[in-house]
Amino acid sequence: MDISPRDLLRGYVEVSSLPTVHLRLEEAINNPKKSMSDIAKVIREDSGLTARLLRIVNSAFYNFPSKVETISQAVTIVGTQQLSALALATSVMKMFDGIKGDLVSMDSYWRHSIACGLAARLLATFRREANAERYFVAGMLHDIGRVVLYTKLTDISREILLEAKTKRKLLYEAERERLGFTHAVVGGVLLQTWKLPTSLEEIVMYHHNPKAATRFPVETAIVHVADIIVHSMGLGTTGEIFVPPLDPEAWDRLGIQPSVLASVEDQIDLQYKDALQTMLADT
Amino acid sequence: MGLINIADIRPGMVLAKDVKDRNSRVLLTAGNELTDKHIKIFKMWGVTEADIQGVVHEDVEAQETAALDPEILRKADLETQELFLHAGSEHPGAKELARLSTMRRVRAMMEASHGH
Protein backbone atom coordinates (compact mmCIF):
# COMPACT_ATOMS: atom_id res chain seq x y z
CA MET A 1 0.00 0.00 0.00
CA ASP A 2 1.65 3.21 -1.14
CA ILE A 3 0.10 5.64 1.24
CA SER A 4 1.43 7.15 4.46
CA PRO A 5 -0.54 8.27 7.53
CA ARG A 6 0.39 11.83 6.62
CA ASP A 7 -1.04 11.45 3.09
CA LEU A 8 -4.28 10.22 4.59
CA LEU A 9 -4.61 13.26 6.80
CA ARG A 10 -3.54 15.76 4.15
CA GLY A 11 -6.76 15.25 2.24
CA TYR A 12 -8.96 15.28 5.31
CA VAL A 13 -10.01 18.90 5.64
CA GLU A 14 -12.84 18.28 8.11
CA VAL A 15 -10.41 17.29 10.85
CA SER A 16 -7.35 19.20 9.74
CA SER A 17 -7.49 21.58 12.69
CA LEU A 18 -9.02 21.80 16.16
CA PRO A 19 -11.68 24.39 17.01
CA THR A 20 -9.96 27.70 17.75
CA VAL A 21 -11.41 27.74 21.26
CA HIS A 22 -8.70 25.18 22.19
CA LEU A 23 -5.83 27.28 21.05
CA ARG A 24 -7.19 30.21 23.01
CA LEU A 25 -7.82 28.04 26.05
CA GLU A 26 -4.26 26.67 25.98
CA GLU A 27 -2.91 30.18 25.52
CA ALA A 28 -4.89 31.48 28.48
CA ILE A 29 -3.80 28.60 30.71
CA ASN A 30 -0.14 28.95 29.80
CA ASN A 31 -0.13 32.72 30.17
CA PRO A 32 0.72 33.59 33.79
CA LYS A 33 -0.91 37.00 33.39
CA LYS A 34 -4.32 35.42 32.73
CA SER A 35 -6.57 34.67 35.68
CA MET A 36 -9.13 31.95 36.25
CA SER A 37 -11.89 34.31 35.21
CA ASP A 38 -10.12 34.96 31.88
CA ILE A 39 -10.10 31.21 31.30
CA ALA A 40 -13.78 30.92 32.22
CA LYS A 41 -14.49 33.73 29.76
CA VAL A 42 -12.86 31.84 26.89
CA ILE A 43 -15.03 28.80 27.59
CA ARG A 44 -18.23 30.82 27.98
CA GLU A 45 -17.82 32.24 24.48
CA ASP A 46 -18.67 28.76 23.18
CA SER A 47 -22.15 28.04 24.49
CA GLY A 48 -22.20 24.42 23.32
CA LEU A 49 -18.91 23.71 25.06
CA THR A 50 -20.15 25.47 28.20
CA ALA A 51 -23.24 23.27 28.35
CA ARG A 52 -21.26 20.09 27.71
CA LEU A 53 -18.69 20.88 30.39
CA LEU A 54 -21.31 21.72 33.00
CA ARG A 55 -23.06 18.45 32.27
CA ILE A 56 -19.84 16.47 32.78
CA VAL A 57 -18.92 18.32 35.94
CA ASN A 58 -22.37 17.57 37.37
CA SER A 59 -22.27 13.87 36.47
CA ALA A 60 -21.19 10.79 38.44
CA PHE A 61 -17.76 11.46 36.98
CA TYR A 62 -17.19 13.80 39.91
CA ASN A 63 -20.10 13.19 42.22
CA PHE A 64 -19.88 16.63 43.78
CA PRO A 65 -22.33 17.08 46.67
CA SER A 66 -23.93 20.21 45.21
CA LYS A 67 -24.73 21.38 41.71
CA VAL A 68 -22.08 23.33 39.80
CA GLU A 69 -24.04 26.11 38.12
CA THR A 70 -21.46 28.18 36.26
CA ILE A 71 -18.20 27.76 34.39
CA SER A 72 -16.44 30.03 36.91
CA GLN A 73 -17.42 27.58 39.66
CA ALA A 74 -16.32 24.66 37.51
CA VAL A 75 -12.93 26.26 36.88
CA THR A 76 -12.42 26.77 40.60
CA ILE A 77 -13.54 23.30 41.66
CA VAL A 78 -12.20 21.13 38.86
CA GLY A 79 -9.13 23.17 37.90
CA THR A 80 -8.12 24.87 34.66
CA GLN A 81 -5.91 22.08 33.23
CA GLN A 82 -8.56 19.49 34.00
CA LEU A 83 -11.38 21.51 32.48
CA SER A 84 -9.29 22.16 29.41
CA ALA A 85 -8.67 18.41 29.03
CA LEU A 86 -12.41 17.70 29.30
CA ALA A 87 -13.13 20.47 26.79
CA LEU A 88 -10.76 18.78 24.35
CA ALA A 89 -12.43 15.40 24.82
CA THR A 90 -15.94 16.66 24.13
CA SER A 91 -14.88 18.87 21.23
CA VAL A 92 -13.18 16.01 19.41
CA MET A 93 -16.34 13.94 19.83
CA LYS A 94 -18.33 16.85 18.42
CA MET A 95 -15.96 17.09 15.47
CA PHE A 96 -16.61 13.51 14.41
CA ASP A 97 -20.33 13.86 15.03
CA GLY A 98 -21.51 13.67 11.43
CA ILE A 99 -19.66 10.47 10.62
CA LYS A 100 -21.83 7.50 9.74
CA GLY A 101 -20.57 4.29 11.23
CA ASP A 102 -20.80 2.10 8.14
CA LEU A 103 -18.11 -0.32 9.27
CA VAL A 104 -18.28 0.05 13.04
CA SER A 105 -21.13 1.91 14.70
CA MET A 106 -20.00 5.24 16.11
CA ASP A 107 -22.04 4.50 19.21
CA SER A 108 -19.98 1.39 19.85
CA TYR A 109 -16.83 3.32 18.96
CA TRP A 110 -17.48 6.03 21.57
CA ARG A 111 -18.60 3.49 24.16
CA HIS A 112 -15.22 1.80 23.97
CA SER A 113 -13.41 5.13 23.93
CA ILE A 114 -15.29 6.60 26.89
CA ALA A 115 -14.84 3.39 28.90
CA CYS A 116 -11.12 3.44 28.11
CA GLY A 117 -10.97 7.07 29.22
CA LEU A 118 -12.64 6.13 32.51
CA ALA A 119 -10.28 3.18 33.01
CA ALA A 120 -7.19 5.28 32.29
CA ARG A 121 -8.41 7.99 34.66
CA LEU A 122 -9.03 5.43 37.41
CA LEU A 123 -5.60 3.83 36.99
CA ALA A 124 -4.03 7.29 37.08
CA THR A 125 -5.99 8.18 40.21
CA PHE A 126 -4.89 4.94 41.79
CA ARG A 127 -1.28 5.87 41.09
CA ARG A 128 -1.95 9.40 42.42
CA GLU A 129 -0.97 10.99 39.13
CA ALA A 130 -1.50 14.74 38.87
CA ASN A 131 -4.36 15.79 36.56
CA ALA A 132 -6.10 12.47 35.97
CA GLU A 133 -8.31 14.15 33.35
CA ARG A 134 -5.53 14.16 30.79
CA TYR A 135 -5.61 10.37 31.00
CA PHE A 136 -9.32 10.49 30.33
CA VAL A 137 -8.62 12.42 27.13
CA ALA A 138 -5.79 10.08 26.14
CA GLY A 139 -8.07 7.07 26.68
CA MET A 140 -10.87 8.71 24.72
CA LEU A 141 -8.62 9.47 21.78
CA HIS A 142 -6.47 6.33 21.72
CA ASP A 143 -8.24 4.79 18.70
CA ILE A 144 -9.04 8.04 16.87
CA GLY A 145 -6.85 6.84 13.97
CA ARG A 146 -9.50 4.19 13.21
CA VAL A 147 -12.10 6.86 12.47
CA VAL A 148 -9.69 8.30 9.93
CA LEU A 149 -9.07 4.88 8.37
CA TYR A 150 -12.78 4.05 8.24
CA THR A 151 -13.62 7.40 6.66
CA LYS A 152 -10.75 7.83 4.22
CA LEU A 153 -10.05 4.19 3.33
CA THR A 154 -13.53 2.73 3.73
CA ASP A 155 -13.23 -0.16 1.26
CA ILE A 156 -9.78 -1.25 2.37
CA SER A 157 -10.85 -0.97 6.02
CA ARG A 158 -13.84 -3.21 5.32
CA GLU A 159 -11.46 -5.82 3.91
CA ILE A 160 -9.10 -5.46 6.87
CA LEU A 161 -11.98 -5.94 9.35
CA LEU A 162 -13.13 -9.02 7.44
CA GLU A 163 -9.61 -10.44 7.27
CA ALA A 164 -9.18 -10.02 11.05
CA LYS A 165 -12.56 -11.61 11.74
CA THR A 166 -12.29 -14.62 9.44
CA LYS A 167 -8.64 -15.39 10.24
CA ARG A 168 -9.08 -14.53 13.95
CA LYS A 169 -6.26 -12.01 13.83
CA LEU A 170 -5.71 -8.94 15.95
CA LEU A 171 -7.10 -5.99 14.02
CA TYR A 172 -3.94 -3.91 14.36
CA GLU A 173 -1.89 -6.81 12.95
CA ALA A 174 -4.27 -6.99 9.97
CA GLU A 175 -3.91 -3.22 9.53
CA ARG A 176 -0.13 -3.46 9.56
CA GLU A 177 -0.10 -6.31 7.05
CA ARG A 178 -2.34 -4.47 4.64
CA LEU A 179 -1.29 -0.84 5.07
CA GLY A 180 2.21 -1.04 6.51
CA PHE A 181 1.09 0.98 9.55
CA THR A 182 -1.62 0.80 12.22
CA HIS A 183 -4.44 3.06 13.41
CA ALA A 184 -2.22 3.98 16.37
CA VAL A 185 0.27 5.76 14.11
CA VAL A 186 -2.52 7.52 12.20
CA GLY A 187 -3.93 8.73 15.53
CA GLY A 188 -0.54 9.92 16.73
CA VAL A 189 0.07 11.86 13.53
CA LEU A 190 -3.42 13.40 13.74
CA LEU A 191 -2.77 14.68 17.27
CA GLN A 192 0.55 16.04 16.04
CA THR A 193 -1.28 17.91 13.27
CA TRP A 194 -3.55 19.35 15.94
CA LYS A 195 -0.46 20.50 17.86
CA LEU A 196 -1.62 18.72 21.01
CA PRO A 197 0.88 17.99 23.82
CA THR A 198 3.59 15.49 22.84
CA SER A 199 2.54 13.26 25.72
CA LEU A 200 -0.89 12.66 24.13
CA GLU A 201 0.68 12.00 20.77
CA GLU A 202 3.10 9.42 22.22
CA ILE A 203 0.42 7.68 24.29
CA VAL A 204 -1.85 7.28 21.25
CA MET A 205 0.99 6.34 18.89
CA TYR A 206 2.35 3.57 21.13
CA HIS A 207 -0.69 2.26 23.00
CA HIS A 208 -0.18 -1.16 21.38
CA ASN A 209 3.60 -0.96 21.54
CA PRO A 210 4.35 0.65 24.90
CA LYS A 211 8.01 -0.42 24.77
CA ALA A 212 8.59 2.26 22.14
CA ALA A 213 7.30 5.05 24.39
CA THR A 214 10.53 6.50 25.68
CA ARG A 215 9.43 9.96 26.78
CA PHE A 216 6.15 9.09 28.49
CA PRO A 217 6.48 5.42 29.45
CA VAL A 218 4.13 5.44 32.45
CA GLU A 219 1.45 7.50 30.70
CA THR A 220 1.53 5.16 27.70
CA ALA A 221 1.45 2.07 29.93
CA ILE A 222 -1.67 3.41 31.69
CA VAL A 223 -3.63 3.69 28.44
CA HIS A 224 -2.23 0.37 27.16
CA VAL A 225 -3.59 -1.40 30.26
CA ALA A 226 -6.84 0.63 30.28
CA ASP A 227 -7.57 -0.49 26.70
CA ILE A 228 -7.03 -4.13 27.65
CA ILE A 229 -9.27 -3.85 30.74
CA VAL A 230 -12.09 -2.33 28.70
CA HIS A 231 -11.76 -4.95 25.95
CA SER A 232 -11.98 -7.71 28.53
CA MET A 233 -15.12 -6.08 29.98
CA GLY A 234 -16.69 -5.99 26.52
CA LEU A 235 -17.74 -2.34 26.66
CA GLY A 236 -18.11 -1.25 23.02
CA THR A 237 -15.49 -1.70 20.34
CA THR A 238 -13.70 0.32 17.69
CA GLY A 239 -13.50 -2.76 15.47
CA GLU A 240 -11.23 -5.07 17.46
CA ILE A 241 -12.91 -8.27 18.63
CA PHE A 242 -10.08 -9.69 20.77
CA VAL A 243 -8.40 -8.53 23.96
CA PRO A 244 -5.02 -7.13 22.84
CA PRO A 245 -1.94 -8.76 24.41
CA LEU A 246 -0.66 -7.26 27.65
CA ASP A 247 2.93 -6.04 27.60
CA PRO A 248 4.45 -7.36 30.88
CA GLU A 249 6.96 -4.55 31.03
CA ALA A 250 4.22 -1.91 30.68
CA TRP A 251 2.28 -3.66 33.44
CA ASP A 252 5.33 -3.51 35.70
CA ARG A 253 5.64 0.23 35.06
CA LEU A 254 2.23 0.76 36.66
CA GLY A 255 3.32 -0.87 39.91
CA ILE A 256 -0.15 -2.25 40.69
CA GLN A 257 -1.26 -5.64 41.98
CA PRO A 258 -3.67 -7.78 39.91
CA SER A 259 -6.18 -7.47 42.76
CA VAL A 260 -6.57 -3.79 41.88
CA LEU A 261 -8.28 -4.79 38.62
CA ALA A 262 -11.49 -5.95 40.31
CA SER A 263 -11.96 -2.60 42.02
CA VAL A 264 -11.08 -0.69 38.83
CA GLU A 265 -13.79 -2.69 37.01
CA ASP A 266 -16.28 -2.00 39.80
CA GLN A 267 -15.58 1.72 39.50
CA ILE A 268 -15.96 1.62 35.72
CA ASP A 269 -19.31 -0.15 36.14
CA LEU A 270 -20.43 2.59 38.52
CA GLN A 271 -19.40 5.47 36.25
CA TYR A 272 -19.93 4.04 32.77
CA LYS A 273 -23.67 4.56 32.26
CA ASP A 274 -23.65 8.10 33.51
CA ALA A 275 -20.52 8.96 31.54
CA LEU A 276 -22.16 7.66 28.35
CA GLN A 277 -25.30 9.67 28.92
CA THR A 278 -23.27 12.74 29.67
CA MET A 279 -20.83 12.48 26.80
CA LEU A 280 -23.14 11.07 24.12
CA ALA A 281 -26.10 13.44 24.65
CA ASP A 282 -26.40 15.99 21.84
CA THR A 283 -25.83 19.63 22.44
CA MET B 1 -1.41 -18.29 54.09
CA GLY B 2 -2.76 -16.81 50.88
CA LEU B 3 -3.25 -13.48 49.17
CA ILE B 4 -7.01 -12.93 49.05
CA ASN B 5 -8.96 -10.25 47.15
CA ILE B 6 -10.69 -7.74 49.38
CA ALA B 7 -14.06 -8.87 47.95
CA ASP B 8 -13.50 -12.38 49.33
CA ILE B 9 -12.28 -11.39 52.78
CA ARG B 10 -14.71 -12.23 55.60
CA PRO B 11 -14.89 -11.37 59.31
CA GLY B 12 -13.13 -14.01 61.41
CA MET B 13 -10.23 -14.48 59.00
CA VAL B 14 -6.79 -13.96 60.58
CA LEU B 15 -4.10 -11.80 58.99
CA ALA B 16 -0.87 -13.59 58.06
CA LYS B 17 0.88 -10.32 57.24
CA ASP B 18 0.46 -6.64 58.14
CA VAL B 19 -2.06 -4.80 55.98
CA LYS B 20 -0.70 -1.51 54.65
CA ASP B 21 -2.36 1.32 52.77
CA ARG B 22 -0.98 2.75 49.52
CA ASN B 23 1.51 4.89 51.44
CA SER B 24 2.84 1.78 53.20
CA ARG B 25 1.32 2.87 56.46
CA VAL B 26 0.36 -0.14 58.57
CA LEU B 27 -3.41 -0.34 59.09
CA LEU B 28 -3.51 -3.63 61.00
CA THR B 29 -0.75 -6.02 62.08
CA ALA B 30 -0.40 -9.74 61.41
CA GLY B 31 -2.22 -12.07 63.80
CA ASN B 32 -5.33 -9.91 64.15
CA GLU B 33 -8.73 -11.48 63.58
CA LEU B 34 -10.73 -9.37 61.12
CA THR B 35 -14.03 -7.71 61.92
CA ASP B 36 -16.56 -6.02 59.59
CA LYS B 37 -15.17 -2.69 60.67
CA HIS B 38 -11.60 -3.63 59.70
CA ILE B 39 -12.74 -4.70 56.24
CA LYS B 40 -14.67 -1.47 55.77
CA ILE B 41 -11.62 0.57 56.76
CA PHE B 42 -9.39 -1.43 54.37
CA LYS B 43 -11.76 -0.61 51.52
CA MET B 44 -11.78 3.06 52.49
CA TRP B 45 -8.00 3.17 52.32
CA GLY B 46 -7.85 1.48 48.93
CA VAL B 47 -6.56 -1.88 50.14
CA THR B 48 -7.29 -4.47 47.42
CA GLU B 49 -5.88 -7.66 48.99
CA ALA B 50 -4.63 -9.16 52.25
CA ASP B 51 -2.57 -12.16 53.30
CA ILE B 52 -4.79 -14.50 55.29
CA GLN B 53 -3.73 -17.41 57.51
CA GLY B 54 -4.77 -20.93 56.60
CA VAL B 55 -6.36 -20.23 53.20
CA VAL B 56 -5.10 -20.56 49.65
CA HIS B 57 -5.98 -18.05 46.94
CA GLU B 58 -6.95 -20.80 44.47
CA ASP B 59 -9.29 -22.46 47.03
CA VAL B 60 -11.23 -19.25 47.55
CA GLU B 61 -11.62 -18.83 43.79
CA ALA B 62 -12.58 -22.50 43.42
CA GLN B 63 -15.24 -22.11 46.14
CA GLU B 64 -16.60 -19.10 44.33
CA THR B 65 -17.00 -21.02 41.06
CA ALA B 66 -18.17 -24.28 42.70
CA ALA B 67 -21.45 -22.58 43.66
CA LEU B 68 -22.22 -21.74 40.01
CA ASP B 69 -24.19 -23.63 37.40
CA PRO B 70 -21.47 -25.70 35.66
CA GLU B 71 -23.11 -25.35 32.23
CA ILE B 72 -23.20 -21.54 32.46
CA LEU B 73 -19.66 -21.48 33.80
CA ARG B 74 -18.42 -23.63 30.92
CA LYS B 75 -20.09 -21.37 28.34
CA ALA B 76 -18.74 -18.21 29.98
CA ASP B 77 -15.28 -19.74 30.15
CA LEU B 78 -15.31 -20.63 26.44
CA GLU B 79 -16.33 -17.08 25.51
CA THR B 80 -13.52 -15.68 27.64
CA GLN B 81 -11.00 -18.07 26.06
CA GLU B 82 -11.97 -16.87 22.58
CA LEU B 83 -11.80 -13.22 23.71
CA PHE B 84 -8.33 -13.80 25.21
CA LEU B 85 -7.07 -15.78 22.19
CA HIS B 86 -4.23 -13.30 21.60
CA ALA B 87 -3.86 -12.04 25.17
CA GLY B 88 -3.19 -15.40 26.80
CA SER B 89 -3.68 -15.77 30.52
CA GLU B 90 -0.21 -16.61 31.82
CA HIS B 91 0.56 -13.09 33.00
CA PRO B 92 -0.99 -12.52 36.46
CA GLY B 93 -2.70 -9.33 35.21
CA ALA B 94 -4.19 -11.03 32.13
CA LYS B 95 -5.15 -14.04 34.23
CA GLU B 96 -7.09 -11.86 36.66
CA LEU B 97 -8.80 -10.01 33.78
CA ALA B 98 -9.80 -13.34 32.23
CA ARG B 99 -11.22 -14.53 35.57
CA LEU B 100 -13.19 -11.28 35.95
CA SER B 101 -14.42 -11.62 32.35
CA THR B 102 -15.74 -15.13 33.01
CA MET B 103 -17.50 -14.01 36.20
CA ARG B 104 -19.01 -11.02 34.38
CA ARG B 105 -20.34 -13.33 31.66
CA VAL B 106 -21.73 -15.74 34.22
CA ARG B 107 -23.60 -12.90 35.92
CA ALA B 108 -24.99 -11.69 32.59
CA MET B 109 -26.14 -15.20 31.60
CA MET B 110 -27.73 -15.81 34.97
CA GLU B 111 -29.58 -12.49 34.81
CA ALA B 112 -30.78 -13.34 31.30
CA SER B 113 -32.05 -16.77 32.35
CA HIS B 114 -33.85 -15.34 35.41
CA GLY B 115 -35.50 -12.81 33.15
CA HIS B 116 -37.38 -15.55 31.25
Defining key terms:
heterodimer; A: 283 residues; mainly alpha; Hypothetical protein af1432; globular; B: 116 residues; Molybdopterin biosynthesis moea protein, domain 2; 2 domains; two-stranded antiparallel ribbon; two-stranded antiparallel sheet; 4 strands; 49% helix; 11% strand
Give the strand tally of chain B. 4
- Uncertain residue ranges of chain B: none
Quickly count the helices of chain B. 4
User: What's the pLDDT, averaged over the residues of chain B?
Assistant: 90
Which ranges of chain A are low-confidence, i.e. pLDDT below 50, for 5 or more consecutive residues?
A: none
Q: How would a textbook summarize the main sheet of chain A?
A: none
Percent range of helical residues of chain B: 40-55%
Strand line-up across the major sheet of chain B: 1-4
Number of strands of chain A: 0
How far do the termini of chain A sit from each other? Answer: 39 Å
| Tertiary shape of chain B | elongated
The two chains with the largest interface, and their residue counts, are: A-B, 27 and 25 residues
Q: What's the tally of helices of chain A?
A: 16
> Would you state the CATH class of the domain at 5-17 and 98-280 in chain A?
Mainly Alpha
Q: What is the percentage of strand-forming residues of chain B?
A: 5-15%
Q: Looking at this structure, what is the CATH superfamily of the domain at 5-17 and 98-280 in chain A?
A: Hypothetical protein af1432
Structural class of chain A: mainly alpha
* Cα radius of gyration of chain A in angstroms: 18 Å
CATH architecture of the largest domain in chain B: Alpha-Beta Complex
**Quick one: biggest sheet of chain B?**
2 strands, antiparallel
CATH topological fold name of the domain at 5-17 and 98-280 in chain A: Hypothetical protein af1432
